[in-house]
Predict the 3D structure of the following.
Amino acid sequence: MQKRRLGRTGLEVSVLGYGAGAVGGLFTKGAAQDQERAVARAIEAGVNYFDTAAKYGDGESEKNLGRVLKALKADVVVGTKFRLTAADRADVAGLVTRSLEESLKRMGRDHVDLLQLHNPLTATDDGDELDVEIALNEVVPALEKLRKQGKTRFIGFSGVGEPAALLKAVDSRLFDTVQVVYNALNPSAGGSMPKGAPGLDYGRLLDRAQAAGMGTIVIRALAGGALSGTTDRHPLAQQQVPPIGSAPDFAGDVARARALEPLVKEGGTDSLTELAERFVISHPAVSTMLVGYSTLQHLEEAIAAVNKGPLPAATLQRITG
């Protein structure tokens, strides 16, 4: 599997990453043997970046991923995340430290490769939404302290929230990585916003991050599953998935995804999900793409898709409009 440089970290990560979140659900609600089988297969295929978070399954994802990686004696790149509540604003540094210590305990590790801020970034502070100035002036120093202690090698943030705040955080060059919302329904992080498309304009965030020397980790590559073209959900998967940066509701995203179905054959792909995954990895500024899995078959399909490489230029143009 192709490896790409994760920005200035110098790490070489697989173009397909393993998302152990709740959207796919295998690592929050799946059987232990299925979890181990999936990670073993991913590593065999060349996947070397694994993403989790304290929030996923209220710590279950971290617990399960840590157990599996230890059992397999896997030498891979691991990233996790923490989230600040409104009450945590009184002691940001304390929360960041406590959260990482709890994550490391759940995973059975003494450090992670990447520790990321999970809150949406905005211009004003309101509950789950974090003022970008707090992120830059309070969160970053706390992360740097943990880096110096050897608890994390690199630091990053999840690129959700208001585009202006996200671009400000990128342009600060204080973080090593950014998670980027980028998919065939909203490609604005990688180019122009398609005319008439709903959702947020992420202002070519991928290019801005690359210019800042940051690694880019694409999230919502399948728009929470909408780019499968169906509202059906696997029993392990998160049953209600609020869109991020795309249509106002999931059904709207599914309807827009179905409009791309004529491009499946034209792009030389076998399915809508393959079209969507190969669309993401076609952008040269993408370091790795996270996909969440409910089954081993989902993983196999993603591996096969990325191994086919980027989409033809003409198909890419049709998607971006």
Observations:
- Residues 132-148 form the longest helix (17 residues).
- The CA atoms of residues 20 and 52 lie 5 Å apart.
